[in-house]
Amino acid sequence: MEKRGGTPSPSPRSTEKSGKDLTRSGDANGGAGAGGNATPKGDKEKGVNVQVILRCRPLSDDETKGNTPVVISCNERRREVAATQVIANKQIDRTFAFDKVFGPSSKQKDLFEQSISPIVHEVLEGYNCTIFAYGQTGTGKTYTMEGGGTRKAKSGELPTDAGVIPRSVRQIFDILEAQCAEYSMKVTFLELYNEEITDLLAPDEPRFPVLPVPEDKNKKPIALMEDGKGGVFVRGLEEEVVYSAGEIYKILDKGSAKRRTAETLLNKQSSRSHSIFSITIHIKELTHESEEMIKIGKLNLVDLAGSENISRSGARDGRAREAGEINKSLLTLGRVINALVEHSGHVPYRDSKLTRLLRDSLGGKTKTCIIATISPSVYCLEETLSTLDYAHRAKNIRNKPEVNQKMMKSAVIKDLYSEIDRLKQEVFAAREKNGIYIPRERYLQEEAEKKAMTEKIEKLGVDLEARDKQLVELKELYDAQMLLSAELGEKLEKTQKDLEDTRHALHDLEEKYSEAKSTIKEKEFVIFNLQNSEKSLVDCAYNLRAELENAAADVSGLFSKIERKDKIEDGNRSLVQRFRSQLTQELDALHKTVSTSVMQQEDHLKEMEDDMQSFVSSKDEAAQGLKESIQNLKALHGSGITALDNLAGEIDMNSQTTFEKLNSQVQSHTSDLEKCFGVIALGADNLLNELQCSLSKQEERLAHFANKQREV
Ligand code: ADP
Ligand code: MG
């Protein structure tokens, strides 16, 4: 403040001085009525989700040297992070999706340009925006927010490892310079440790030596005040006006220096403390009526305490709180997020200073972004998973961003003048009287406040008495109630028993009900199936009927055919019978003919036998006659021979004459013989002819008989 008083602002844009109202957390619009709200309607009604960005740092040199296994893989394109866990030899991958994912090789510039730059634009539109860095210690929260250690780069350029804070400041200046706007930028930088606020930009020596000095000389405890309009502000917080982007490092160094001193004193305090860097911008605008208005935007950049504290102290919650409320703010932040995500009615903003300060950034009118930082190392996996869960949950918080109401420039100036006056009086009093001096006006005001307080105390005393009386009455009432409650207790027990029984019964009924339900379901299913089959059956029946009709026609045709066939068969039968009778008749006739013919044959054979016998006997007789004639012939022949012999002797006597007589006798005998032989030969010839004739006759007869037989 002295510095600011001593160096009157030369720059045309530095029209602002410090003002307590402007350090108010949340909105600076003071909740007054009309105008200046440029929020789109949709945003206002539905709200916008908190934007959650995930950043995974690369392995450190030590980790690389130690061959630390990497268990995190980032897919920037799909905005996903996968953590590989091995549980009981099984690999389990858990994947989380975020609004943006920046892998180990991502650059500070990329993160800023892709995710933070749009937020800075909104701040310049007049929104309040907050960016949180959340994560385990050593995962790069401070690296992301403030940057690596490099402070200097080529002329005017930011170093490549510059974080979100210097880049935001740089961008704000660049944009406003390009617009040739009239503006001013102020920053505050505070630390919250153990529910105590420290101003990281306060000058080292106490401003008012007469005031009691806190134990830690570098730190001045600062009160959080209600502004009476639902917000809070940090009273007496140092505000540094920034004139150029380059200055931001001076301020950061100043703050970090304070933090560093504290770190050595308080055992790695930075991992347990939160730091809030706030940038407030006032921009002059001209309305159509040429009225000068001031547009106000605010950017809070919050580097939270290491998240390992929350999980670890969560395990032994009670003791941690006893140990000095170290993590109260971080725990409360978690509870606030849970309450907002689960839409439970009460959101415990008031339970910690951090949530009081940033109330508007969580479920309020502020646009909020959370950068969750993780390490890729297997040794941090547990913390990493808890960070991923936490960040993923926070995605569901909805804010309803509203543009800050613009202020008339004249009103701002008036406010500032009265503030300057108040401060001047304080300075004057302090310097002149070398002790505590309170200006008359302030004195009167405080006296009046004191009087009001006394009155209030008196009133409270009276109230207390009344309360005491009430307490006695209540005690009596309490006793009566106790009796009643004992009675009721008994009743309750009985009722509970009954209830238990009823519950059992109900349980049984429920079981039966569910059984019945399932059976009904089954039945329904069966009925449905039956209906379907019925339908198909009906269809089949229709088809069958048609087919049956056809078949009936066929059958009647068949019947008529059968009738016809029967008739034919009857005809056939009578025919067969007739044929049979004829056949028997004919057979009888045949039999008769055969027997007659057999008889005839027998007759024939007899005749033939007779014929043959008569023939044989006739032949015998002929042969006997032939024999007799031959014997006669023989005797004749013998007598002839003896006559010849007698003649031969007479021949011998009579020689020639007798010879001649002999000759003539031999000749007559020979012709007689020839005549006899001719008769015999004729008789034999006739016999033979007769025999032949009767044989051929017999032959003919046999042939005829044989023919007849064949014919039969
Ligand atoms: P935190 O603030 O979360 O405790 P730091 O920001 O102090 O963590 O980071 C721890 C170390 O890791 C620092 O040395 C820092 O330079 C380094 N680091 C963190 N994030 C990155 C990153 N994205 N790229 C390179 N180095 C990083
Ligand atoms: Mg840090």
From TrEMBL:
Region entry Disordered, spans: 1-46
Give the record's GO biological process terms: microtubule-based movement; mitotic spindle assembly; spindle elongation
Q: What top-level branch of life does the organism fall under? A: Eukaryota
Q: Could you list the residue ranges forming a coiled coil in this record?
A: 485-526
Residues annotated to bind ATP: G135, Q136, T137, G138, T139, G140, K141, T142
Q: Of which family is this protein a member?
A: Belongs to the TRAFAC class myosin-kinesin ATPase superfamily. Kinesin family. KIN-5/BimC subfamily.
**Sorted alphabetically, which InterPro entries does this protein's record hold?**
KIF11-like (IPR047149), KIF11-like_kin_motor_dom (IPR047241), Kinesin_motor_CS (IPR019821), Kinesin_motor_dom (IPR001752), Kinesin_motor_dom_sf (IPR036961), P-loop_NTPase (IPR027417)
Q: Which UniProt keywords apply?
A: ATP-binding, Coiled coil, Cytoplasm, Cytoskeleton, Microtubule, Motor protein, Nucleotide-binding
Q: Where in the cell is it found?
A: Cytoplasm, Cytoskeleton, Spindle
Task: Sum up the protein's function in the record's words.
Answer: Responsible for microtubule translocation. May be important for the organization of phragmoplast-specific arrays of microtubules. Plays an essential role in stabilizing the mitotic spindle. Required during mitotic cytokinesis.
Keyword Chloroplast attached: no
Q: What is this protein called?
A: Kinesin-like protein
Q: Where is the composition biased (Basic and acidic residues)?
A: 14-24
Primary location recorded for the protein, binned into one broad class:
cytoplasm
**GO terms under cellular component:** mitotic spindle; spindle microtubule
